[in-house]
Write a structure and sequence with these properties.
Number of helices: 2
Largest sheet: none
Structural class: mainly alpha
Strand content: under 5%
Shape: rod-shaped
Order of helices and strands: HH
Amino acid sequence: MSEIEDLQVRIAFQEDSIEELTRSLLRQERRMAELEQLLDAVQRRLLELEQKPHHNASANHGEIPPHY
């Protein structure tokens, strides 16, 4: 194999590697965006739950639970 052919093979291999890395990066970026949306939804739900009054806790405030 000549030096030129060797270089052509190396370049082809590098191009394939770069394409695979690019595809992998794009998959990771999409997954991160999905996870960020999920995290936002969880945070909103948690805030909603924190803001709701706790009926059981306020109704039994100051009472000793029956198992004591």
